[in-house]
Amino acid sequence: MRWLAWGFAIAALGPLACVGDDSTGVDSGAPDAAAETAPAGFCATHTSATTLLCADFDGPSLDAGWTDTVVVGGGALSLESTDAVSAPNALVAKLPSSATPTSAMLRLDPVGAPAAFSGALRLEVKVPACFQGNDLLTIASLQFFASSTITYQIDLQISVNGSVAIFVQNEAESGINGQQFGANQLLPLNAWTDMELDLTTSGTPHANLVQGGQVVLSADLLPGTASGAPRFLLGASADKLTSATCSVELDDVTLDRQ
């Protein structure tokens, strides 16, 4: 897997980014009975001083509140309104068959204090049976920086038959090098699954991967500098894709500092 260094500057967004929720908090005047009785959206109920990101994709624009989109090699991002975990929408990242890198991801650049990072990434994911051979998708990436240089990167990856892995790179192990840790349980294909990546970088970096409420991977990671709040990428990215097309659906994504 390549070091995903696209060279963007980090933008300060504050301690909490709630993206994809169309609630404005503005009183438009006359009461709306339907709006008053409608249940609150996922992100409306997930507010905390430690939350760096909450995305439920239920607003009018899929990239509202994100820093940028990273669409390369024919990838595409869209909203799905018939099969979301929390209605009405989920994010769809679609990649074409390609012999070269292809990507369809959202990017968020928060800024945090220069301290060792401990946090949790939680998401709902649905992956179809679209893999062939050595196809490998990155669906989420956390990138840590010193100035404008990536010093540490952690990718959440899915491969053939729903195999799940964490791929870690530091400054000494960048490019195609790195360390991969495979989970001991396959991801169900064509079904929504909740996943959680718990990460601490103080002392020896350590990660726990939880799938469906069960710890499927616990590992000490490569040493490295992972401080502050990470740049976060979400969607689908691949160095190559031999299948015709592959679409990943994502919903109810949170990133919290612990």
Describe the structure.
It is a single chain. With 258 residues, this protein is mainly beta. The protein has one helix and 16 strands. Strands 1, 2, 4, 5, 7, 12, 13, 14 and 16 form a nine-stranded mixed β-sheet that branches. A seven-stranded antiparallel β-sheet has the order 3-6-15-8-9-10-11, with no helix packed on it. The two termini are 28 Å apart.
List the helices and strands and how they pair.
Elements: E1 17-19, H1 33-37, E2 51-55, E3 68-72, E4 76-80, E5 90-98, E6 102-108, E7 118-126, E8 136-146, E9 149-159, E10 163-170, E11 179-182, E12 193-200, E13 206-211, E14 214-220, E15 231-238, E16 241-257
Parallel strand pairs: 1-2
Antiparallel strand pairs: 2-16, 3-6, 4-5, 5-16, 6-15, 7-12, 7-16, 8-9, 8-15, 9-10, 10-11, 12-13, 13-14
Can you describe this structure in just a few lines?
The chain has 258 residues and is mainly β. The protein has one helix at 33-37, and strands spanning 17-19, 51-55, 68-72, 76-80, 90-98, 102-108, 118-126, 136-146, 149-159, 163-170, 179-182, 193-200, 206-211, 214-220, 231-238, 241-257.
